[in-house]
Design a protein that fits this description.
single chain, mainly alpha, 6 helices, elongated
Amino acid sequence: MDRRRESKQGEVGQRQRRQPSFAWLFLGKVILLAATIVVVWAVYAYLHAYRLDWLGWFYVHLLPLTNGLYAMVETYFPSDMKYKIRGAITDDLGQRSLFLLLLTAAVELTLYSLFKLARAIDFGALFGRRRPGAGAPT
């Protein structure tokens, strides 16, 4: 029984971290989603207003992927659905949608990685402040 108690408490002088509740995890995902939407909107607005040539470059490079989607629709979808789906992925809309989808994925991965990096860095140790009980000599 003593071994169980020791294993639950960890080593003497160290507190184990509790798993965050569902509400905190959900709130974190909502904040990540909101930040992703704002950053993607800002990047797309910047590209559309000031760097239209960059946006065109991305669209040109996404054209083969759009053509691949057209070929997939032509090959695998039934005849009655082809017309509707082809209308949904027109040249401009298809490339813009793919660009925004890829931009969103890249921004979300970047923000998530930065958040995890910030949690991994012990800022208190960097600035000379330590949390009580953390790194206490044994």
